[in-house]
Design a protein that fits this description.
Largest sheet: 11 strands, mixed
Number of strands: 17
Number of helices: 11
Order of helices and strands: EEHEHHEEHEHHEEEHEEEEHHEEEEHH
Oligomer: single chain
Shape: globular
Strand content: 25-35%
Distance between the termini: 25 Å
Structural class: alpha+beta
């Protein structure tokens, strides 16, 4: 079942703020960031000249998938490399498309801004990037959780997953374009997340390779309700808390800024309940290498995914 994400150009902040809080549906706000300085300045050449000296880590895949769950060991799934920001920009903007898609920089490596317990932390070297964007007016800055920047070349695929922080997400497309697919929380069972007790620790990620669905999962993926959209430079995409999503990066040079913020009323659904289980297991520091413990956790999580325990 496929649906197109609604596009709107309505920018009344109060009306949109109420809508984003009340409706558990994605929304694309076309042209919403046209006033950002970043929209006029961010190019490979400009960023390399201004910030190319900064040393960074970035994701490095054997293909175009990030994380690279087509591999069989965590070291290769989550591989990273180090370089100057200028060298990274060269790698994602020159050479064959397949090579450029192997590299991705996100806030996993370095956030722009993080707010916890009322205290705000800004990466001092990346602060000029933050100065070139404007925090959207659709939520109170007091509820702002994290701000990330993303940089990539054509062909990158972000693996199907949900954000495990319980936050709403605004994805701002600065340069390039992306195609996205979003699945509501009630499709959890059809999306087959990696389970507790298994070898893959990314429990908020799906086991399904959406570009080449495995035979065991293909029918479920096809049956799942899916919303899709294409983001162009200047657009904002609202991703509600706990929704699964995956992106294909289409532009020759793609840059995004993400804003996560806590809902005024936290969402409670099957994904939120499952994440509460995952958080409780992590807090208890259970020994998942113990075969008996791993088997028990696997069974509990499998029941949660299938909604029998929720």
């Amino acid at each position: 079942m496929a649906f197109e994400v609604e596009r709107t150009t309505a920018l009344d902040p109060r009306a949109l703020a109420l809508r984003l809080e009340r409706e558990d549906r994605p929304l694309l706000i076309a042209g919403a960031i046209g006033h950002w300085p970043a929209l006029a300045t961010w190019s490979v050449e400009y960023l390399a000249a201004q910030h190319g000296h900064i040393q960074i880590e970035y994701k490095h895949s054997t293909g175009n998938a990030h994380p690279d769950f087509r591999q069989h060991t965590p070291a290769r799934m989550f591989a990273r490399e180090k370089a100057s920001f200028g060298e990274f920009l060269r790698r994602i903007s020159t050479g064959p498309e397949g090579e450029r898609a192997r590299c991705l920089f996100t806030g996993d490596e370095r956030f722009l801004l993080r707010r916890r317990s009322g205290e705000t932390t800004i990466d001092p070297e990346l602060a000029p990037l933050l100065d070139a964007v404007v925090v959207p007016e659709f939520f109170s800055e007091q509820r702002l959780h994290t701000v990330w920047a993303w940089f990539s070349g054509r062909g990158v695929r972000t693996w199907l997953h949900y954000d495990n922080n319980g936050c709403h997400n605004l994805n701002a497309q600065v340069t390039g374009s992306k195609r996205c697919w979003l699945y509501p929380p009630e499709e959890l069972a059809r999306l087959h997340p990696f389970l507790l007790g298994g070898s893959n620790p990314a429990h908020n990620c799906s086991a399904i390779d959406v570009e080449a669905p495995q035979l065991a999962f293909a029918a479920d993926l096809q049956a799942a309700a899916c919303w899709h959209a294409e983001l162009r430079a200047g657009d904002l995409l609202f991703i509600p808390a706990w929704w699964f999503h995956t992106f294909l990066h289409l532009g020759e040079f793609n840059s995004n800024v993400n804003f996560w913020w806590k809902p005024t009323a936290p969402r409670w659904n099957v994904v939120a309940a499952r994440q509460a289980l995952l958080d409780a297991v992590a807090e208890a520091q259970l020994n998942v290498r113990d075969e008996a413990v791993a088997a028990t956790l696997h069974a509990i999580d499998q029941a949660a995914v299938c909604r029998r325990a929720l």
